[in-house]
Specification:
With 240 residues, this protein is α+β, with helices and mostly antiparallel strands. The chain has 2 domains: 3-49 and 169-222; 52-167, no CATH class. The protein has 4 helices and 10 strands; from the N terminus they run ααββββββββββαα. The protein has helices spanning 3-14, 27-44, 177-196, 199-222, and strands at residues 53-57, 59-60, 71-74, 79-82, 103-107, 113-117, 122-123, 129-134, 146-151, 162-167. Strands 1, 4, 7 and 10 form a 4-stranded antiparallel beta sheet that branches. A 4-stranded antiparallel beta sheet has the order 2-3-9-8, with no helix packed on it. Strands 5-6 form a two-stranded antiparallel sheet.
Length: 240
């Protein structure tokens, strides 16, 4: 589904004139182009979309934070945000009894063990971190400003630092259909007034977006397997 097709889907639902291309100078095309990228980035921030989820090894910045933390690690250029935090318990299962590799254990400052599912946002777990810009410098070599993860963890060849993050994905051929629907709804919200001058259409689009995000979230979560997941047995009895 090309960008122009997505925009035309939006325009059809708004009752507006469709366009021939995104670069032809048509009024609706110009307005849509101004908000298209923001709409996509905004929806990518909403959930841990599996098609946008990526694990990466970070490279330590040549410069260090001015104070507070010892090390800075450069974030990928397509970084949107880290994946969401996972809670340490799942359905009352005893983490100690789980198979090796399923949980990461960290002893906190009070000596109490904390368990994390092995899908951490930052690995290794248990280290405080923050996100900040590390200013560049002109001498002795030119270093550009970089958005970084700063922490006290010192990486090494054998023990690098990894992140699990949501990346910017502009290639709509790998988007899920439920994600596309969310983007379409978001564009309707952003374009309802500039194109149709209709507050009602904007409000309707906002309601549709809320429903689309719930539906997309349910589908997105269904793509993962949970080790102790039981689910419903109702399907076993269907037709019996």
């Amino acid at each position: 589904m090309a960008q122009v097709d997505i925009v035309n889907a939006v325009l059809l639902r708004l009752g507006a004139d469709v366009i021939q291309s995104m670069t032809g100078g048509e009024t609706n095309a110009v307005k849509a182009a101004l908000v298209y990228s923001d709409a996509v980035a905004s929806i990518l921030q909403e959930k841990d979309w599996r098609f946008a989820k990526l694990r990466a090894t970070l490279t330590r910045h040549t410069l260090s934070p001015l104070y507070g933390f010892q090390y800075a690690y450069q974030l990928p250029s397509d970084f949107i945000r880290l994946t969401m935090e996972h809670y340490p318990q799942v359905r009352g299962v005893n983490p100690v009894a789980m198979p090796p590799g399923y949980w990461s254990q960290v002893i906190d400052s009070t000596g109490y063990p904390r368990f994390y599912k092995n899908d951490p946002r930052v690995d290794p777990v248990g280290y405080e971190f923050k996100f900040e810009v590390i200013p560049g410098q002109a001498t002795p070599t030119v270093v550009a400003d970089r958005f970084c993860l700063i922490t006290d963890y010192e990486d090494s060849t054998d023990n690098p630092i990894h992140i699990n993050y949501i990346r910017l994905v502009t290639d709509d051929t790998i988007w899920t259909y439920t994600f596309k629907e969310c983007v379409i709804c978001k564009l309707r919200v952003l374009l309802a007034i500039p194109i149709c001058e209709s507050i009602q259409k904007k409000q309707d689009a906002e309601k549709d977006l809320a429903r689309a995000l719930i539906s997309a979230g349910a589908f997105n979560e269904s793509l993962d397997s949970v080790l102790d997941e039981v689910g419903s047995s109702s399907w076993e009895n269907a037709g019996r």
